[in-house]
Amino acid sequence: MSSIAFEGDVPAVQVVDLTKRFGAFTAVDRVSLSIGKGEIVGFIGPNGAGKSTTIRMLCGLLHPSSGRAWVGGFDVGREPEKVRAHIGYMSQKFSLYDDLTVWENLRFFAGMYHVRRQDLSDRLAAAVAMAGLRGRENSLVGTLAAGWKQRLALGCAILHRPPVLFLDEPTSGVEPEARRRFWDFIHELAGQGVTVLVSTHYMDEAEYCNRIALINAGRLIAIGSPGELRQQRLGGELFELACQPLGAALAAIRAIPEVVDAAIFGDRLHILLREGQAVPDFALLLQAEGIQAMPAHRIAASLEDVFVQLVSHEQGAHP
Amino acid sequence: MKMRRVVAIAYKEALQIWRDPRSLAIALFLPFMQMALLGYGVSLDVRHVPLCVFDQERSQLSRELVNRFTASGWFDTVHLVDSDNAVRKAIDSNVCRAVVIIPVDFSRVLNVTGQASVQAIFDGTDANTTNIATGYVNGIVAQASADFKRRWAAARGLGQTKVDQVDLRSRAWFNEGLDSRNFIIPGVVAIIMASVGAQLTSLTISREWERGTMEQLISTPVTAMEVMLGKLVPYFAIALADAIFCLLVAVYWFEVPFRGSLATLAVTTALFAVVVLGIGYLLSVRIRSQLGASQVALILTLLPTTMLSGYTFPIDQMPAAVQAVTFLVYARYYVSILRDVFLKGSPIEDLAAPVLALVIFTAAIGYLAATAFRKRLD
């Protein structure tokens, strides 16, 4: 599939101390990571964490304030045009031409990526099929639903069969069924050797990635496979507790010595307990404070738990 | 540079223009409207000045004089008034802009001395019209008194040569009828191209920023040069089509004489089109909003081109400082080329100075436009 092969063991994406400052604000703070060929890496973090800024720097759209990055072996700060020839990019905001038809958009981007003439009809047909828009080639893109638009945008971004794909929140505003199909397609691409860096704020989508990079306040706070992060990063056992009122309960639980950390998750508390400790009777302790509580039970950690735990740890370390 | 990319961008841009009512309106309707407004609305000629006559004598001779005013075409609906009071009232109520008072002894004085005079009163609020109308009144009275004098001399058996030794006949070259329309309309073509051209391209880059399509576009390997060329091609075609339309209207509708060469006209028009489109493109690159860019384009092109290009106000009568500024008003070169090509039929070698100036502007704007666009978000 990829016409451009990387030499030897050169990582598809190599980032070293990449930093972006906007005035006094540091949007991306010394991020370093390395992504291998065919890997799917997810950027996870809240809005404003620096995910988009990082991706834009890797596409050569923003100039790094300091640090360096190589995509496909090309320096993003010094050879942005070479980088652009080797990447596909989907920006956060849908950015195809609403006033052009499906077919016109594809033709346009095929021209921009200079797809060879002998490949043109195959590539266009494949993109239409992938987007599920067969028979709607002549519809104006502005009339399509979000899920279709997003798959068409992906179709446009891979017309030149780039070895590296940057997808910035590709599934935001897309219904779950369309999201799932989208991820199937990403896996298909990765199976063909395409390296994918994808940002999302849907925690459940993190499970689709080979590795996850957790980003908060411009810093990379952890990177690893979803399993690794869940097992190693938490450093304790996790319990769930339904109680009322949550705020008072949180303060009371945090005061218990065996408790490493506690946080509100929806309408309940998640409590991290030091490994190998006897489990205190939380309900009884809370009743003493006049708080209603159900018995606590042990749960498997979700990535969200890991994320919350890491962020609070981070904040303790870097006040 | 890859031609295919230029073609792809040009085609895309053409489709977007075709589907964008605002761009279409600017491309098609604006030139038509401006041509009608400027072609008909702006005229420096003074015709049909409403005139009142207070004929105190009411003789055959005085009536003949009044008829000459009516027949001249310069003056309209001659009202007759019969008192000084009515004269004042006619001027005050804007019934007329000029009053001619023929004195009660007009014929008698003429018959005795061979010289007669009338009094003319003008509404001086519009100094320009007053100036021109004064000239007309003088002309008509002078012509009439010369004729009367000739008759008076003949009646006394005097030789004609004694009275009328010099017969001055002035003739204006290139615009024989001294028709200001012939002078203005070629300039109108320049005004329309300057404003429409810059308006059109002022939207082209800012539209991509506003709609968010720019980020996708600049993530591709397309170069700034390819973007510029691709975007300008369809607008260049529109600008030329607009120019052809305006020139045809000038020649066939307003009947401005065309005496020059089409090749000269084509070459200079193409150069001018590149300059105006380049200006709009530059603004569009710098100002990332459609509204902002088109507003600035309007102010930057319409005002200087109408005021400082020499299209209505002669440059050589401006103060020296203003004259110096007009060298930067690229439209002045095209206006003077158009006039010379239309009215004088000047060959291109006689137009070396303004053509060279246009070439310099084309090169400078082209360079700035080609280097202005950066494929960066910061």
Describe what you observe in this structure:
The complex is a heterodimer of chains A (319) and B (378). Chain A is of the alpha/beta class and 319 residues long. Helix content of chain A is 35%, strand content 27%. Chain A has helices spanning 51-58, 80-85, 102-112, 117-130, 146-157, 176-191, 203-206, 226-234, 246-254, 282-288, 303-317, and strands at residues 13-22, 25-35, 40-44, 66-71, 74-75, 87-90, 164-168, 195-200, 211-216, 219-224, 237-244, 259-265, 268-273, 292-293, 297-298. Chain A has a six-stranded mixed β-sheet, sandwiched between helices. In chain A, strands 11, 12, 13, 14 and 15 form a five-stranded antiparallel β-sheet that branches. In chain A, a hairpin with a 2-residue loop joins strand 1 and strand 2 (25-35). In chain A, helix 3 (102-112) runs parallel beside helix 5 (146-157). Chain A starts with 12 loop residues before the first strand and ends with a helix. With 378 residues, chain B is an alpha/beta fold. Chain B has two domains: 3-43 and 179-372, no CATH class; 49-163, 3-Layer(aba) Sandwich (abc type-2 transporter like fold), CATH 3.40.1710.10. In chain B, 67% of the residues lie in helices and 6% in strands. Chain B has helices spanning 3-19, 21-41, 60-72, 84-92, 106-113, 127-155, 160-163, 180-202, 204-211, 213-218, 224-253, 262-286, 290-308, 320-326, 331-344, 352-372; strands at 49-55, 75-81, 98-102, 119-122. Chain B has a four-stranded mixed β-sheet with strand order 2-1-3-4, sandwiched between helices. Chain B is elongated, with a radius of gyration of 29 Å. Chain B starts with a helix and ends in a 6-residue tail after the last helix. Chain A binds chain B through residues 22, 56, 59-63, 80-81, 84-85, 87, 89-91, 93-100, 104, 107-114, 153, 156, and chain B through 2, 4-5, 7-9, 11-12, 15-16, 19-20, 211-223, 375-378.
